[in-house]
Amino acid sequence: MDRPYEVATIDDLDKVPVLQGALTWRPVRRRFGIEAFGVNVFSAERAGELVIEDHYEREGPEELYVVLRGRAAFTLGDGEEVDAPAGTLVFVRPGTHRVATAREPGTAVLGVGAKPGEPFEPSGWEWGAIAFAHLNRGDEEEGRRVIEDGVARDPDSWAAQYNLACFEARTGHPEEALEALGRAVEGDPESVRRFATGDEDFASIRDDSRFRELIGG
User: Fold this and answer.
1) CATH no. for residue 96?
2) For the purposes of burial, counting CB atoms within 10 Å of the CB of 109, is it exposed (0-12), middle (13-18) or buried (19 or more)?
3) I need a surface site. Which of 2, 77, 183, 201 has the fewest CB within 10 A?
4) Which ranges of the chain does DSSP label H, i.e. alpha helix?
5) How does pLDDT run across 173-216, given as a tens digit for each residue?
6) Which residues contact 195 (CB under 8 A, 6 or more apart)?
């Protein structure tokens, strides 16, 4: 019989580079098979690197960030800055803009989140991060398998559709990219337009008038 518990350190977790390597994701939920809530660790090797990506979700989960080691600088809401040494807890309600960078090398931040009163569903972001890690290593086939699995698990997720659009654009499928981006816009137009405006993943379709129409450019 399997043990009813598992123990791991931060450094035991996989290290998945995301945002073109500007952020390191250490999957916790996937490592333990947690199904009740989202939980991950994000880390930065050097000061000045991201530990929490710049994002805003209009109807997203409640999220708690715990600085496990090092020191982070959070920017929250309309621009309030919070200095967060190890041991700091930062609670963020849905609809709140947030981003954090490391102030010390080796900074690590634990993020825990779930939507109140709703069954937990893993974010399509997880599958996207893994898919792009495969793609960046030159394994497009495995990356596509992962990204399509993520979309199949939650086809209504704007994040899953957005990541699929990025993947299609980077692998030379402009029509499929625009179709997926359109579905993402239907799910959360404000978030999609904010991210897509400067997203280099869309370099191959940025001059397409349909792309500009979708993101309001």
Assistant:
1) 2.60.120.10
2) buried
3) 2
4) 29-32, 124-136, 140-153, 158-170, 174-187, 189-196, 209-215
5) 999 999 999 999 998 898 898 889 888 999 999 999 999 999 98
6) 55, 162
Cβ-count burial of 51 within 10 angstroms (0-12 exposed, 13-18 middle, 19+ buried)? buried
CB 76, CB 158: distance < 8 Å:
no
Asked, for residue 4, whether it belongs to a domain, the answer is no
pTM: 0.82
- Whole-angstrom distance, CA of residue 133 vs CA of residue 120: 25
Structural tokens at position 214: 């979708």
Residue 202 gets which letter from DSSP? Answer: G
Q: For residue 128, give its domain range.
A: 124-215
End-to-end Cα spacing for the chain: 57
2 occurs within a structural domain: no
